Task: structure prediction
Amino acid sequence: MPRVFIKPFNRVVDIGYGETLLDAIKSVYPEYSSPCGGRGLCGKCIVRVVEGVVSKPTGNEFLHNVLSRGYRLACQTRVYGDTVIELDHVLKGCVECSIETFNQPLAVDNPLPQSILNGLREHMIYYDGECFREFSRSYLSNIASLNKRLYIGVDLGTTKIALYFYDIEERSLVSSDLLLNPQSRYGDDVVSRLTTILYDRSVLERMRILTIEAIEDKVVGIVSGSGYCLDDIAFIGVAGNTAMLSIFLGVDPTPLTRSPYRSPLPSSFIITDARALCFKKLPTRPILVPPVFKSFVGSDALADLVVVSRLGARPPYLLIDIGTNSEIVLVKSSREYYVTSAPAGPAIEGMHLSCGVGYSSQAIRRLWITSNGFKWKPLIDKPVGITGSGYVSAIADFRRHNIVSENGVLLKWDRVVNGSKTIVIQEVDGEPRIYITQSDVREFQKAKAAIASAWRVLLDKAGLGISDLCGVYIAGSFGSSLDPIDLIEIGVIPSIPLDKVFVVGNAVGLGVIQLLLSRSYRLYGYRVVRRAVHIELPLEDKFSRYWIESLKLKRVEG
Amino acid sequence: MVGVEELLEILRKAVIDGDCERACSVTRELVEKGVEPDVIVREALEPAMRVVGELFESEEYFIPEVLLSAEAFKKSFEVVRERLLKKSFRRLGRIAIGTVRGDIHELGKNLVATMLTVAGFEVIDLGVDVAPEDFVKAVRDYGVDAIGLSALMTSTMVEQRVVIEELERRGLRDCVKVVVGGAVVNEEWARSIGADGYARDAFEAVHVFKKLLGVE
Result:
């Protein structure tokens, strides 16, 4: 059995003859990023083979031009004998955690489980770990969750999982934390993971258990670390996109893999419990999964909407949850909702770009040009990279200074790297350390076109124009470091007066807690999901035209 | 009085700039001056699209600019086509193209179809969510020289293999060249399913089809 020695961490891994270096790395560093799922497409998993017996380079490695720099792609390199490798770009993404500034207190009326035990069971369905059954309150009566104080909201994202803890007696958020979704070892995007399941059904349960264990370890750590005990937990709510929730529940998600992309989950509030889902460390507590819309649009969009409506949003308004898979909701009136999902791709979160990092406290989150060169926030001497919001602000400012044209062509640049015009942000010893290339701008254009064409189609469907909008709400991981004016400048969102644009940040976790605490919001949520019109973008006539038009980096006026 | 050489230069520029109207009017002017259609195609339209390809390759042009140029090319070509047909102008070959079953993404496929048309192929667009039987039907009934299979999702790219297997089953595999593409597809995948070629983008697709059909 060949042995792989990983420097500079001095880890030794035994792997099977002919397995890849990526298999070796992931077995000790599951969070190691392989955005394309190990198919040799993204060129991100570069390693240096110091010595050893490995396979010959593949075409993909020539394509990514890594060989000339002395690297190999880990996913393309098979190991046939003892090998020493060196990882020099190490696990960049460290996790940033934040409690959102949410001034509005959450509404409390008929919180769960009391409302159910009082006979109020609104559109619920029970899931026993295998099947959906008609809901009966006897499912809850033997679960000791009455009069407990801690409500946990889980935002089950494709890339990261955010946890929020709310004390109903204190009436306040007591803690929050973030962890990486451990499923990423099966692919970075939803469809890659679903494809893995398509080929091997047993992976579904493995992914599910990984997720359950990761969540439960984190919950145990936080509960005990913040002066509570596990018995204090009253209820857990989980929201996410349809694929993530199907995997979490262990429901076959593969109908989502091909047209017509049918959701395998019922559009009702799903009640299940920790035992049915095989949580081992948590006490038996009920779990609520709010209803999903259709197709990929899940309960995360609903949770966002709950928070936005709690903020007093007045229709017609747009809600845009920016992420790898962006959700867009247009609320025309309190009775008319249009929803869709736009596969923006990981570039919108900064991933896959030359200096892109998903999220890190040591990365540039905002970048602009001054007469003395580039400035960025946060103030770090040696940033590790640029986040999604960093790219938005940089490209918007390049546009303002006419460094990039409306068509996305770099008009000024410092040097040419690998055939791509490059703007150097920071140089160390004459070598560009942080930079933005023409290809980065192109990738970013495609990502933003996906989002902009989506809201344009929704506005068309609803018969509304940009000037009709009373508000645009931006949710997602961009958070407070983002200045909405930058989003407007390059047309990611429609050009409307700034006092109508609100950045709500990661709203999903709070929205879930709000659903746990309030029956009125549960009824609201059920109504919204029932009434929403789901739009499948590729089937829309104007989508292609809008997508191409939206590649332009310019304001979209009413 | 503007000379023919000058007009050809203006036409080249109009196509490169994606200026449809100008391309059409200049083409008409050239035809009226009695310039042979194949000269217009050979001396202006084709070189212009080669430049567009180079501009795309060097990242100077992006999808919208390429589409505008392609449109200008097509409009100009329509003006000369009638006369070309009279002189039995031969197309490079007939290609059927479609997005595979279960996948409804058409942007990339349409771009490839446009560039193949512009390059001189006759393109039959089978649309999206195309069943393997329909690709087989195109091979059997329309006498195509090659087929292009597009897949945008990792979950549907396996359908490319299904189409190739279906062609083999019907004994039609050797009658036709198969080229695969799509954001998630790569060279290695193309080889592993026994496709004849793989193309990363629309310009490469033109190149690959030309090479496979021996018309380069």
Remarks:
- Residues 89-101 of chain A have pLDDT under 50 and may be disordered.
- The first strand of chain A starts at residue 3 and ends at 7.
- Residues 327 and 341 of chain A are 4 Å apart (CA to CA).
- The first helix of chain A runs from residue 21 to 28.
